[in-house]
Amino acid sequence: MSLVIVKAKQGEKDVIMMRVMAPIGVYLPTGVALEIDGGAVGRVPFTRCLPQICIAFAEASKETLEKMRKGNAANFIIYEAPGLGVPMKISLEGFSKAMAALDEF
Q1: For residues 43 and 94, what is the distance between their CA atoms, to the nearest angstrom?
Q2: In whole angstroms, how large is the CA radius of gyration of the chain?
Q3: Opening angle at CA 15, ends 99 and 44, nearest 5
Q4: N or C, which end of the chain has less CB nearby within 10 Å?
Q5: Residues with Cβ < 8 Å from 100, sequence gap 6 or more?
Q6: How many domains does the chain have?
Q7: Containing domain of residue 53, as a range?
């Protein structure tokens, strides 16, 4: 599983998009869940599957980005079956600095 964060344009507006790429065989109806410091943030549906990966792609809200800036750790959870989640834990140390660098582009 991998996570990509990109800055994109939607019309005149800059948006931050998050893309989670998971292996094929995931349980599609549950999508990808996000927790920050143990608190549930939300879910994003899978938008497509290719021969090697399934992709969940959505705009990151200002609230979610702020929680990530202030948080210590995030869990992106994919599901193999209903109720059987597999977390990808990432440290949020340096996230604010990385987002500031992204703002320069």
Answers
A1: 24
A2: 14
A3: 95
A4: C
A5: none
A6: 1
A7: 2-103
Structure confidence at residue 1 (pLDDT): 86
Burial (CB < 10 A; 0-12, 13-18, 19+), residue 54, is: buried
Give yes or no for a contact between 76 and 32, defined as CB atoms under 8 angstroms apart: yes
- CA dist 10 and 14 (Å) reads 6
3-state secondary structure 24-88: CCCCHHHCEEEEECCEEEEEECEEEECCCEEEEEEECCHHHHHHHHHCCEEEEEEEEECCEEEEE
pTM, 2 dp:
0.86
Between the alpha carbon of residue 11 and those of residues 8, 14, 17, the distances in Å are 10, 8, 14
Q: Tell me, what CATH number does 74's domain have?
A: 2.60.40.1880
